[in-house]
Specification:
By secondary structure, the protein is mainly alpha-helical. It has 2 domains: about 70 residues; about 80 residues, no CATH class.
Length: about 160
């Protein structure tokens, strides 16, 4: 079986488990006055589960198959070794580290670090431009979330604030 069908099979299993939870367990604890509402907390998860199952079945049954012509710039899953998978894995690890450092390091420090290290990882060579852009972006987002929306975001590390 081809790689896309294996992935579709795994995706089907995940969507079926998610669909089971959406259809049978999410609404169990609702109070009686909410049980007759037209839109429930499980409405969107139910739609996602159904769409995911349908999409994976289309791929599993081969309904989307046309003659495969790989054009320049398209990803050829038969030659995955030619892509920078290590760089992508490091970037995913950087995202996890960003999420874990968000509270202890504060929003500004962790966001500037994530943007700067991510830019250098992806090949940017201009240190000054990267740092200026990262500081402006992180500061702007913090200001909008903290001051405009009124949602508290710890700007600095816990030992400084």
């Amino acid at each position: 079986m081809a790689l896309d069908r294996w992935i579709a099979l795994i995706f089907l299993a995940i969507c079926l488990a998610y669909g089971y939870a959406a259809f049978f367990t999410i609404d169990a604890g609702l109070p009686p006055f909410m049980q007759r509402n037209p839109v429930l907390p499980s409405t969107f998860p139910k739609a996602l589960a159904v769409l995911g199952v349908l999409t994976s079945l289309v791929i599993l049954l081969g309904l989307e198959k046309n003659e495969v012509v790989i054009k320049e710039g398209d990803i050829d899953y038969r030659n995955l070794g030619q892509y920078k998978i290590g760089q992508a894995a490091i970037l995913l690890g950087l995202m996890v580290a960003y999420a874990l450092l968000l509270r202890p390091a504060g929003f500004l420090l962790s966001t500037v670090g994530f943007l700067a290290i991510g830019s250098f990882l992806l090949g940017e060579k201009r240190w000054v431009a990267v740092m200026v852009t990262a500081v402006i972006a992180a500061g702007s987002i913090w200001y909008l979330v903290q001051e405009v929306l009124g949602i508290f975001l710890r700007p600095l590390p816990f030992f400084l604030g």
